[in-house]
User: Fold these one by one.
Assistant:
Number 1:
Amino acid sequence: MPRKTEISRRLAARAAGMIPGGVNSPVRAFGSVECEPPFIVRGQGARIWDADGNEYLDYVGSWGPLIAGHAHPVVVKAITSAASNGTSFGASTPSEADLAEIIISAFPHIEKVRFVSSGTEATMSAIRLARAYTERKYIVKFSGCYHGHADALLVKAGSGVATLGIPGSAGVPEEFTQFTIALPFNDVDAVEQAFAKFKQQIAAVIVEPVVGNMGCVPPAPGYLRALREVTARENTLLIFDEVMTGFRLAFGGAQAVYGVTPDLTTMGKIIGGGLPVGGYGGPAGIMDMVAPLGPVYQAGTLSGNPLAMAAGIAVLRMLRDQQNEIYPRLEKLTAKLVQDVVLEASGAGVPLTANRVGSMFTWFFTSGPVTDWDSASQADAKSFAGFFRAMLDQSIYLPPSQFEAAFVSTAHTDADTRQTVAAARQAFATMHA
Ligand SMILES: *Cc1c(COP(=O)(O)O)cnc(C)c1O
């Protein structure tokens, strides 16, 4: 049964007249899946509803933040209660230290944390701090890793070899990215070569410890440990960008799962409970270089916003208090979902490689394996688009891109994942027809 799309279509046309592409973040335009985006009017638990009244089982979860599902009653109560006391003061409120305390308890290396309003601000500020602390200019990032849209981090990856300073966006002068070195993910030799070439000039290595932004790509065994060893040896700061993985893979993030401790951690998404928040933290000896204590300037009118703090505290307390039930259950539920869909694909003769860590995963339409951007980009985005549309028509809402991770929340049930597997079987059948 085709979905009703009339009202969403009208809303999209209206928005397109006033907002570039009709969207405030490009992936929402559904460009790569060649279909019109539903306009969402409501979410509850694992489900969302669009303006035409279609109901969907949601595996996007606002791109990661909603680990507790939509409109969780505890979170809604925390936000409304905070709002009734005023929405912003531009002055300190007690809730900021409450959220900081939970984050510090989750990440042993963090002694101090600064809150901002987005993941982009968090990584941008952490890079500035690392450059100030080390008094060096270069940074290393990895192809396919996304760290927000700050100029220096929007660097496209060259194939295979280290690529220096090629802007990944119009409007970013080469001069602004000339100190950004982009290397292939999961390749320790490439990192060693960069350090040999730029001796004592690399301020920081920034990495998504489990990549979510080229689709889900886990670190090879020993990779994160090798990054830790090289950066420690070279007096370079290691930054784990845990904006997606923090509180997603475990209460202590990817660093707890893999047992590797960075110098700085950037956060976002889940720590805001669905409201706009970012954060960066580390040892006091580094963090105290930030203004007003130190010379690294960073500020924000709405930073530490009381509504965002309240939502974050509500979600993180839930995760902390129930971590022994929540994370194992997410692991089990997601593992079965991902594996069952792979079995359906193989039954239908569709080449599919599944990557998964905890409750984040991607079905890549390739025979795989997918270990870095080069192998991820082998995936057949056209096949994915067909699969995506077939799933959407069966009320399953996946990320509208082959190169994004999907998420399972605590609101998802066994019945939900069974519904998803059945839809996938149907989708693979139509793709083959
Ligand atoms: C989402 C994301 C960001 C950017 O966060 P925004 O809040 O969208 O600015 C940065 N790094 C990673 C790893 C992310 O997943």
Number 2:
Amino acid sequence: MIPAVMPTYARADVAFERGEGAYLFDTDGRRYLDFAAGIAVMSLGHCHPHVVRALKDQGSKLWHTSNLFRIPEQEKLARRLVEATFADTVFFSNSGVEAWEGATKLVRKYHYATGNPKRWRIITASGAFHGRTLAAIAAAKSEKLTKGFGPIVDGFDQVAWGNLNELRAAITDETAAIHVEPIQGEGGVRAASLDYLRELRRVCDEFGLLLFLDEIQTGYGRTGKLFAHEWAGVTPDVMCVAKGIGSGFPMGAFLATEKAAIGMTAGAHGTTYGGNPLAMAVGNAVLDVMLEPGFLPRVRKTAGALWDRLSALVSRHGAVVEEVRGAGLLLGLKCVHPNTEIIDDLRAEGMIVAPAGENVIRLLPSLIIGEAEIEEAITILDRVFTRRTAGEQQAKAV
Ligand SMILES: *Cc1c(COP(=O)(O)O)cnc(C)c1O
């Protein structure tokens, strides 16, 4: 019999009841170090007091009115994001893929509004992940996502990740934009080189294309800058964000320059829930903390320390993990054994991590972790890897 919850996920048999900072507590009261952070969502950790206060205050004032009316909290968050980024304007959604889909519509509308309606195709990269709508699975193109859901939405041309020659060759007079994640999260924590991002900007300028970045996973401080593209010193024309934006409150947004958003006039796009007062109160509270002067420098320092400790671990346990990859607090360990086994071992030892493509385990702790959490993570990883190595040697001896 089909379960009451539609069985579309392969879930681990554990349920959590409470969270506090970088820790989760399961229904038996057992404590776990949370290095998945709800898949990069819990940017400020579980139940950050400033965010909880904002949620409670707004929760007893006003939740939702709809976008038929002005929403002061939404105007405030948009203004702050405009001040903090390349963007001139922001649209708020309820989830990552919705932000992605809205940004995709903006790309098509830009060329339509500027007299080039034939330019509607978007170049994407192999190994990409942009969400689960019909268009987003078409953009990612992996069979795992699209099989059985055809016909596949047209308008996306895929090239090999990191290959500029292939990219240039794929541009036609129908091309509207180039679209990538600065670091492919689901795809295996595969970081673009900064030069690759700079070159994408140059190519877009040369051919009159929009540079469209998916910073749903890499944004909101995850790499130690507010947005990952800042490391390359280039700016996109349009960008979608989500995950860390609400530190657990479901929301997303897409941001654009005034030029790119030329077609986004009244009636062009909409949502019932997006940007409602409750979500915006939380979004503003998250930004309060993240824009405090010391916050991002501290993330960079923590990330550097974690990278060093993980690199040392990899050199000691080459039979279990091959390399550290990624940037900031979006890190991956490429496993020798199936990553699912390592993930189960780690959970049994009280540490939560997430899987990624290419047999990688993803470490995405909340951005508020410090030395104590790093120490604990390394201890647990070391224990699990040591046991794996010992098991192996035993097996060989037999
Ligand atoms: C998670 C993710 C999405 C999809 O976000 P949802 O909120 O699950 O719809 C899209 N792109 C990237 C890069 C992501 O990491």
Number 3:
Amino acid sequence: MFYHLAITLAVVSWTVACLAASLPSREDSGQKPLPVVIWHGMGDNYRGDGLLQLSNEIRDIYPEIYIHTIYLSTDPSSDRSATFFGCVDQQVEAVCEQLRDNPELAGGFDAVGFSQGGQFLRAYVERCDDPPVRNLITWGSQHNGIADMPACKDTDWVCKSARNIARSNVWGSYVRDRIVQAQYYRDPEDMENYLEYSAFLADVNNERGEKNATYAKNLATLENFVMLRFKDEQTVVPKETSWFAEKNVTSDDVTLLRDRPIYQEDWIGLKALDERGGLTFLEVPGEHMQISTEAWKKMAKEYLGPRKVIGNGLKLQTAF
Ligand SMILES: *[C@@H]1O[C@H](CO)[C@@H](O)[C@H](O)[C@H]1NC(C)=O
Ligand SMILES: *[C@@H]1O[C@H](CO)[C@@H](O)[C@H](O)[C@H]1NC(C)=O
């Protein structure tokens, strides 16, 4: 019934758009696109070629858009190291300050997170959200953690050393306070240690007894939270984490987000968001972070740019 209604409304608005084609659209009427903030993933840096290319593809669509790529150090090599070594809570805090201090962002922005940058931007929304995020779009992120440390390229020694240290004793205080990936490690077969020792994820997912109501309140203010998953994902174990689902790696059973307590008891505002039509699960072709120009531009057209004419979170679902 609801589905039918949505289709009808979409058709109606399409008709309106056609009739109004000769009038100036809101995009032409001087309304600037909302700025975009991008948080890159593990092993990347804020000046990487890939990021530059993706930023330029957004500018092809919105020539006047302001884009900020988050950095933890202005030196690209240290910025890259900070994707492996550091304390995530402190990194998120530094980013809250970086974004608050940027006058270009004062009116709010759309946030795009790549891989681990996605759950870190979600933490920004939950803990700070000042200035506020309109749409949060995450690509291949580990919202429900990882059950194994991500694999490294053969020649990536920084990555390999982080991985080896982490695997040696993931809950030891040395590892959990210093290795970034250990701070979102979550093995569903060992929830006891996770709830006791997790340095980042258990808190930001509000999984402990005491819930922080601010997290749920802030996340529910998003207009859209879009989680993209890579169809041929091999890097992130398990890939279901990109849709906030949980996988039992022994039985292969997958519990979807909507069937989990974090959603049903609305620990972080996802249910409230979903009931407003603001929660979207999309799958894109490709291996981890192999973003096609086509999928990227579709995202940019759908979720970035000026405010859409039809509000209330009601919009056509595009298949990516
Ligand atoms: C809840 O989170 C907010 C935002 O990070 C923080 O200011 C507050 O101290 C937290 N409350 C508790 C009880 O931890
Ligand atoms: C995962 O599946 C196995 C085998 O069916 C089962 O014994 C185990 O309890 C399950 N784990 C969780 C966390 O549900």
Number 4:
Amino acid sequence: MISPTRLFKFLFAGLLLSPVVAQSTSPFLWDQLTPSQDLDWVECYSTFECTRLQVPLDYSNSSAGTAALAVIRLPSNASQAEYLGPLLFNPGGPGASGVDTLVTTGPSLQVVFGSQYDIVSFDPRGVSYSTPVASFFETDAERALWNAGSLPTSLNASSEAIPTTWARAHLLGQLAAQRDTSGILTYMTTDNVARDMLQMTEKFGYEKLQYYGISYGSILGATFAALFPDKVGRILIDANLTIEATETDKVLQSFFDGCAAAGPDLCAFYEPTAAAIAARLAALTASIRAQPVPVITPTAYGIVDYSFLRSVLFTSFYVPYTLFAPVAEGLAALEGGDGSILFSISQTTPPFQCDCSNATEPFHLNNAEAVVAIQCGDAVEVTDSLDQLREFYANAARTSEFVEFLVGANRFSCDGWQVYREGRFLGPVAAAHTSFPLLLLTTSADPVAPKEAALKTLAGFPGSAILTQDSPGHASITAPSICTSTYFRQYFQNGSLPAPGTVCPVEASLFGAPANSTASRRAALSAEEEEVLAALKIIGDSVRPLVTRQFQL
Ligand SMILES: *[C@@H]1O[C@H](CO)[C@@H](O)[C@H](O)[C@H]1NC(C)=O
Ligand SMILES: *[C@@H]1O[C@H](CO)[C@@H](O)[C@H](O)[C@H]1NC(C)=O
Ligand SMILES: *[C@@H]1O[C@H](CO)[C@@H](O)[C@H](O)[C@H]1NC(C)=O
Ligand SMILES: *[C@@H]1O[C@H](CO)[C@@H](O)[C@H](O)[C@H]1NC(C)=O
Ligand SMILES: *[C@@H]1O[C@H](CO)[C@@H](O)[C@H](O)[C@H]1NC(C)=O
Ligand SMILES: *[C@@H]1O[C@H](CO)[C@@H](O)[C@H](O)[C@H]1NC(C)=O
Ligand SMILES: *[C@@H]1O[C@H](CO)[C@@H](O)[C@H](O)[C@H]1NC(C)=O
């Protein structure tokens, strides 16, 4: 959800710098595995097992053909008596590769949830190593050229921003429809992915799903529960995405408040009061709007302009514990005419180079295309005129200062989408009775998944429970919390739910200043809890770039 059409192809690339997603994924030749109707595991990625599971493209029409899902697991080491079956994991996106993510996070997920589980993930149909793969472009060069034109553009950047964004969405919608030779776009909707999860569960010999989903993974989990309420074993959904940006400005406020509290040593953009920091940021923004700053780093080059500045700020709202301090430093440098720090936060990859031959086969880096295909294909068709979209944007802008990257853009990106399947699931995302309660997680201020959205979902699934993690940012992965992970583990292992009103603190602080309460809690951690904390950090580092990566195309 929530995918501005023209935003940061590259923000996630910058965030990928430290984490591990790309490099530890040693090549595994998926195309050499024969798709099978059973889980025929083979060794892969050294300690994992992989299989390609054949599923019907259309569960109500077997003549529509099949897809082959790339499925991976980190097997449990438990004895048969203690084995608790498969725990399926979806890291979000939509369109993120579950396979790549599990390779970096599998062992850590097993630490958090327990080694009695097989930790399982998969590339959703149409995504990455699952075939057929959704692709709108014929070559890597063509894709790179399109993406170069999709550099972060705030809908508020100029009077042309809205019409240009609208036109690009229409162009992309036509292109996608024309080039969908495999027909996969029709079948990539979330309801079908939920059906695939049921298939996987049954192939494991289990009747009910055990599932952990983050960000878009929440939509997938809730859709499963609505479609198959009697197949819910455990469903943990972490961050309920929505199009209402009601908490976005709260996260911005936490930047101002946190910086003022952290002091000049920890926050480079420090002023004695939050209001003074806000004013300083407004002045800097106005000056950059008037005069953008060109930047050349050793590996890349570009322009820090109004859109760029706003989009880096908005990205930091997802991951404040990681980005507030460097962003503050970048803002201070930018005042002095040096855009390199801010630029490096988001753009670290060299300019695209290629020999301009056709895309290398098998092609699988299609997350940018998958995000559009899934979120638009899931939705009610948008048929707004440009004027209606303008009005929609103007109304939405009343809820948040940063709506330029959210509501408006999300709606824009699907205006012009053409491939809709009749009979797709359009809600309600609810069920009067599920075979086990869901567990929902919300943070205290999430830029794209406010608590009120989670409360709506909670109301739709009577008996379910909600846990609040006391931290700004998107999903529990914004910062590690032993308290949160203990509830997660208990929910899976013995089914217990947090009491109503439970709020968990985190083992981290904004701007890196260890708050006294955090410090004393840290000092009291057991060796086992230290191990969990380390695991949570690995999961966070690996998944955080995926959840901000929605801003592509
Ligand atoms: C089933 O799929 C086939 C192949 O795509 C198609 O020709 C046929 O019309 C479909 N049948 C129904 C009932 O949708
Ligand atoms: C399985 O692995 C975990 C974590 O590595 C370990 O603590 C546990 O003792 C192992 N269990 C068995 C049955 O080998
Ligand atoms: C989240 O909340 C909205 C309500 O704003 C709801 O429509 C949507 O289905 C929910 N999605 C999930 C479970 O992520
Ligand atoms: C690229 O692909 C197109 C269409 O598949 C084909 O006609 C063309 O010969 C290919 N070009 C190169 C350089 O391989
Ligand atoms: C758009 O930018 C102008 C000028 O910087 C600002 O005053 C206004 O609040 C912005 N509007 C939105 C909706 O972001
Ligand atoms: C679940 O496990 C936790 C410890 O892991 C324990 O404190 C709690 O009482 C257990 N609940 C039930 C219902 O067994
Ligand atoms: C944190 O503790 C130190 C001494 O342990 C104290 O000097 C300081 O004032 C405390 N800070 C806060 C914010 O309570």
